[in-house]
Write a structure and sequence with these properties.
single chain; alpha/beta; TIM Barrel; two-stranded antiparallel sheet; 9 strands
């Protein structure tokens, strides 16, 4: 089922309905749909760093793979940050956390928020790649709603592969995602071990891996 958002005259926009103007929705939860994007990033920069820069980088894509507190402001006041995002090549949608001990409705809400911001950024003529974030098995299907198939998706593996249960859920969720969306490319923020991503490469899916800021900082610390 899909439908078009309509404005409500005279009502204060307390849930940021402006973000989903002209949107259509996927699934019973009505997650905003994102249009396909063909371009791929060659360089990534985290949102908090992009905000602090005096000038942008037309070659870099802005990502949100950092603590939620660093980019909650993007949800609270997105119009303030739109001119900053326009200085960059594109945006990977916000990586709002889906902790497994969060109430499920809050996990769904964070999926919605990421897609709503992504739709709005696209409406403002900035290229967008969808970040697919899931928690446990209950969120796998919802995490794919609104994501265009047969194009690029992004995932954050940092912090998801060390512990056995986290690794299991990440791998199973990624298998589900690839099976549903058939992406042509996967942008990976963090490690992309062959044991996890090798089968996708074999299937002809391009895997673009970018080291996490933590890994980069750790290397610099080891090699001053």
């Amino acid at each position: 089922m899909s439908k078009v958002n309509s404005a409500r005259s005279g009502c204060k926009d307390v849930f940021h309905a402006f973000l989903v103007e002209n949107a259509t929705y996927a699934g019973d939860l009505e997650i905003p749909r994102i249009a396909p994007e063909d371009s791929l990033p060659m360089e990534l920069i985290r949102f908090s760093k992009a905000v602090s820069m005096k000038e942008g980088n037309p070659n870099a894509w802005v990502h949100f793979y950092e603590d939620d507190a660093a980019f909650e402001r993007m949800w609270n006041d997105p119009r303030k940050y739109l001119p900053i995002l326009k200085r960059f090549r594109g945006v990977i949608t916000p990586d709002f956390s889906l902790y497994r001990d969060m109430p499920l409705v809050m996990q769904y809400w964070n999926i919605y928020r990421s897609r709503a911001i992504g739709h709005w950024i696209q409406e403002n003529e900035i290229p967008v790649i969808v970040n697919v974030r899931y928690g446990d098995e209950r969120t796998y299907a919802t995490s794919c709603l609104g994501v265009p198939g047969s194009c690029a998706i992004a995932v954050g593996s940092h912090g998801c592969l060390k512990l056995l249960r986290d690794r299991e859920l990440f791998i199973n969720g990624l298998d589900y995602t690839v099976g549903q969306l058939h992406p042509k490319a996967i942008v990976v923020y963090g490690a992309s071990p062959e044991s996890v991503f090798g089968k996708y490469k074999t299937a002809g899916i391009q895997v673009l891996q970018f080291d996490s800021d933590f890994a980069i900082a750790h290397r610099k610390g080891d090699n001053p």
